[in-house]
């Protein structure tokens, strides 16, 4: 048994794809989408995320995650 948390890969220190989830019962916020896309939180990226969420809905964030 490992002392490492279950969500951390011992070899790479990242969460394995099989343990990632998007929280399908929640509505993603523009901040969620910006962070999932790997961008910095700025007024411009938040505006981009608002438009994308309005156009694509939940699928916008699902496309960003494995």
Automatic annotation (TrEMBL):
Renumbered residue ranges of the record's region Disordered: 1-41
Top-level taxon of origin: Bacteria
Protein name, entry field: Uncharacterized protein
């Amino acid at each position: 048994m490992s002392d490492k948390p279950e969500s951390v890969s011992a070899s790479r220190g990242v969460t394995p794809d099989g343990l990632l989830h998007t929280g399908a019962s929640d509505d993603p916020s523009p901040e969620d989408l910006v962070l999932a896309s790997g961008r910095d939180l700025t007024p411009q990226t938040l505006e981009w995320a608002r438009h994308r969420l309005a156009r694509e809905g939940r699928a916008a964030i699902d496309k960003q995650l494995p």
